[in-house]
Amino acid sequence: MKKDKVKEIFDTTANSYDKTWEKLSPISNSLHLLMGAILSELPEKAKILCVGAGTGAEIIYLAKRFPTWNFIAVDPSSAMLDVCRTRLSDLGMEDRCEFYADYLENLSLPDTYDAATSILVSQFIDEKDSRIGFFRNIQRHLKSKGILINADLSNEIGSYEYEHILDVWSKMMSEGGVPQSIEKIRQSHKDGVSLLAQEEVSKIIQSAGFERPVQFYQMAFIHGWFCLKRS
């Protein structure tokens, strides 16, 4: 999907985004719990780069769990970042986060971050080389052996597993108050996101200068990996 189109979608839905997905929050809650465990041995004053920060869900979780950490929130949607800033302000944590309404490649940021997160972001990048470039930009901003946590929609379209998960996903979305027909979901996997098999996502991340990713999470189509910046 084109960058401008993705930005437009999130600008339009920012104010209702969290309410729309509220009933499906157990998904993000379980992902955040594991993210906290993966990052738990970072330094006391760790700095975390959050690419595609959205409304700040993972920042809020990590900021509560690790009260001495600081965060950089990067997202091209200024509307989503406005919601993120408001949520952090309401919790008294706004001063622990910097906000950049832009794409990471356009920013001049330090290369000293202890870890980076990218949650359901790279799936919107169609071109393989561009997707590698996305992760390479993250890699450049990490310290040596810095940690990347990435989550994306992932599966091999048309596979035996895909067809069965498609049915489960449709039922889950309906129960979560976001009904989508199987055919609509199938079409979105062709036109809306770049749905790749897990092995392909892993190879793309490795090609960007990371060690072999470890898959630590799966919830239907959502997969999560963590890895270290390659020395």
From TrEMBL:
CDD domains: AdoMet_MTases (cd02440). Keywords: Transferase. The keyword Transferase applies. InterPro entries: Methyltransf_25, SAM-dependent_MTases_sf. It comes from the Bacteria. Residues 48-146 form the Methyltransferase domain. Gene3D superfamilies: Vaccinia Virus protein VP39. It holds the Pfam family Methyltransf_25. GO terms for molecular function: transferase activity. This is Methyltransferase domain-containing protein. The lineage of its organism: Bacteria, Pseudomonadati, Bacteroidota, Bacteroidia, Bacteroidales.
